[in-house]
Amino acid sequence: MKLIKVNQSSCIKCGICTKVCPTRVLCMQENGPQAINSKSCIACGQCVAVCPHGAIDNVKAPLSNQVDIKSFPAIDSQTAEQLLRSRRSIRCYKNTPVPREKLLKLVDIARFAPTASNSQRISYIVVENKEILKTAVKVIIEWMEQQLENSPHWSFSSHVHAYREDGVDTILRNAPHLILATASRDFKNGRENTISSFSYVELFATTIGLGSCWAGLFEMCAFSNYYPLLKLFNIPTDKVITGAVMVGFPKYKYKRLVDRDPLDITFIK
Fold it and tell me: I need a labelling partner for 107 at 20 to 30 A (CA). Which of 37, 64, 113, 210 fits?
């Protein structure tokens, strides 16, 4: 089956599709764009998306699966700036579970994030069971205590003290849900693609009334291949956890935009 199909009556041979192709799969010929190396196609769909007349179809990124854009940009710059600046890492959550359909909507946006050569290949585990999360915190505390036996670590000490002495969860912050990203153990871009995907998740979360925060301490334990934690979530031996984000309804509302360090920039002419 041919990679590219061209509607000859609609194609004006403008060549835009060949110019945006990141792997130079397409070239313009007398009858329109043609694929010169189908194996190099990464299924990004840019050729189909950019065609002003909808004249090109790609077997790996079908025109029928693409959605027409009514306006671009979709939101104005002021609204976008407000969204980006108002997003906060949430560490205090309501003791209310998030409906599954809302969790699904949140995670589904992750698959649209850009990834290296459109490699994608990230899978997700959404934890809804609060008892499993409580057990995870206990396991991570035990892992921290083992690390402290070998060398002092002020951060670990404070988290262990908060848990053992005060009964406070500073690991997962009593979040009702945890989203785990996983990838094949032999996939080199797993972490990078996860960061890109979770960035989409965190930005989109605020638009549907949810809060989120990277579970960095969870990640440290998981990345050390601590077996009790991996066993708890039934991570297959051929997969690795590549990221973790806490999710839930924010307990408090922030009233102001927080400032940051002044812009440090250099232009090279």
Answer: 64
Give the residue carrying structure tokens 């060949």.
18
- Determine if residue 77 is left, alpha or beta; phi over 0 gives left, psi from -120 to 50 gives alpha, anything else beta: alpha
- Count H helices, E strands: the chain? 9, 8
State both tokens at 258.
């927080």
Global pTM reads 0.93
Q: Are 121 and 187 in contact (CB under 8 A)?
A: yes
pLDDT at 1: 63
DSSP 8-state class, residue 95: S
Which residue's entry shows tokens 């979770």? 198
Rg of the chain taking only CA atoms, in angstroms: 23
Buried b (16+ CB within 10 A) or exposed e, 140-167: bbebbeebeeeeeeeebeebbeebeeee
Q: Which is nearest to 44 in space by CA: 123, 114, 121?
A: 114
> Strand locations in the chain, DSSP E?
4-6, 26-29, 32-35, 56-58, 123-127, 177-184, 211-214, 239-248
Mind listing the pLDDT tens digit for each residue in 9-67? 999 999 999 999 999 999 999 889 999 989 999 999 999 999 999 999 999 999 999 99
Hunting for tokens 């004006």 — which residue is that?
Answer: 12
Angle at 86 between CA 69 and CA 169, to 5 degrees: 120
Instruction: Say how many CA atoms lie within 13 Å of 198 toward its Cβ.
Output: 29
